[in-house]
Amino acid sequence: MKMCPFDLNDPMTFVLHDLKCVIELLFFCCSQVNQTPDSCQETKFKVINLDDGALYRFRVMAVNAAGESDPANVKEPIRVQDRLGRFLFQYYLHLFYEVLCPSNVITSSVNELAVNVSHLILDAGMTREVKAMAGTHITLMAGIKGVPFPTVTWKKNDAEVPTRADIETNQAGTKLEMRFCNRGDSGDYTLTVENPAGSKTVTCTVLVFVPPILEVDVKLTEGIIVKAGTTIRLPAIMRGIPVPTAKWSIEGEEIVSKDNVKIDTDNFSTVLSINECTRNHTGTYLLTVSNPAGTKTAALNVTVLDVPAAPIGPANILEVTPDSMTIEWRPPKDDGGSPVTNYIVEKRESNRETWGGVSSGSLATQLRITRLQRGTEYVVRIRAENKMGIGAPLETKPTVAEHSFMPPSAPGKPQISDISEDAVTVGWTMPLSDGGSQIAGYIIERRHKGGKWIRVNKTPCKDLRYRVLGLFEGSEYEFRVFAENIAGFSGPSPISDPCKPCRPITVPSPPVNPKVKDYSKTTADLVWTKPTKDGGSPILGYTVEMKKADTEEWKKVNLDDFIKLCAYRVKGLEEGVTYRFRVYASNMIGDGEPREIPESITAQDILIPPEIEMEATCREHVTVYKNRFLPLITMLIFLWYRLVKMR
């Protein structure tokens, strides 16, 4: 056995065993316990001081605190040769192993072993395919080893690399960088290294992704107008790397080739075609092109114009007479994309096929058709027209030219109200039946009781009440009412109750100038003047109401009967309380408006201080004889009130 030239205490030690010159490399790659070596920093080792021409085999073992692993053998033996004219080949052995140790010890990963041999190696860090977005940077790198150091050649598609490519080569390897790449940088990049020991080549395919570019005629984005029945053609040009995919949609639903819809797409364009288009093909078509680099969307607006649809049915026949007919219809739901300019109305007898014109040049949706023959059955059709042409017709059901309605039933019995000396108001209820036709109005008639009926209103009354003027006061009148529709007049209503115009009776006006004449701590004497107007009926009496000043509720004072006089004593007041009073008059119609006394009173006695009035002779000095009578004359003034019983 040859002695090992290395220190066995070194963390990485090669031990040569027996005559085969087998080298064992110890790796200390796990946690150290006690005197175990430090962890290994690299997974390769250069073996020196080998014998020239000798043939060596190598194996590698990993060591941790639990012991050594099984060895991994290098498959082929290596012969050490003279370095002159030879190449140094770095042979990489990737060793995978699992350390048998407790679970808290980390397991090793990939290790490499390198020894000097006479070969050339190209360690290309390039993958077989590189994908990049346009505008980004592309970097291709490879590690190179060789003795002598090999020459480096880069090619693109078997031609020279563009001058804009930055190439850097040193002892560690070579690097090609393409900054702000574009679609022209796509291709096969070949790296060749060569020295006297031979050559090696590696190829990398570079794909530069270019976001989609979508070109659409501006007329399509602004909107095109086509006629129904023609072909819609929506072309678009698209570019991108890789070739974008195209997707057509409308209102969120994808469009596929089907029936009269066809989509033609190649690497550079896409076309949506719709044959024999209809109004249903009006809308905004979205074209979306996409590739891994991005997405582009364009909106193409299409309006399909057509003749209008038929007016919305059914047509309503509002009125039929022996010589005319009035019909009404609604505009079409779809105007064809262009405003309706005209309605064409035609009629024919139901037993004939020939249509005759009735009206055109109007946008009205109601028409009165005249010059009909009594008893003849007619069919009418209406068609809408726009700038694209005349649309489908709407036909009425066969209708005979005659009155199709009955006169209404009679109105309800008239009621009389609001009587004055020369006028009354007559009111009534609607008939139970209008005869199938709308009631046009009402006719009112009057008469003196037992006399001849006279029409009151010249034109039909639209309301359910009518003010009859020009009556004579004291005369007795009766009234009746007729209803009218297109078929004629109803029968007369029941006759009203007799009534006499007279001056209207109202409630009296408020009393005049009410006031408090006197008061004490328990009573208050009120006086007033009778109202200026009695309302046309004698005044039955008066009512006095009072309330405390701090409340809003009025209370009636005379509960039993009306006050006949224009004065009244209010009793039962509470001393110290403030009161307010009001008075109103009543007649047979009812109570008049109250008149409130402006001032309020506080229930208390009125106190008047005493007064003394002396004669003038007593106000000066008086001289008298002794033991004589001295007359002193004064005047005392007393004030009192007579107690008068008032109601």
UniProtKB/TrEMBL annotation:
Gene Ontology, cellular component aspect: M band
CDD domains, sorted: FN3 (cd00063)
Fibronectin type-III domain location: 310-404, 410-505, 510-605
UniProt cross-references to Pfam families, sorted A to Z: fn3, I-set
Gene Ontology molecular functions: structural constituent of muscle
Domain Ig-like span(s) in chain numbering: 102-203, 211-303
Keywords, sorted A to Z: Immunoglobulin domain, Repeat
GO biological process, one term: cardiac muscle tissue development
Protein's recorded name: Titin
Source species of the chain: Lates calcarifer
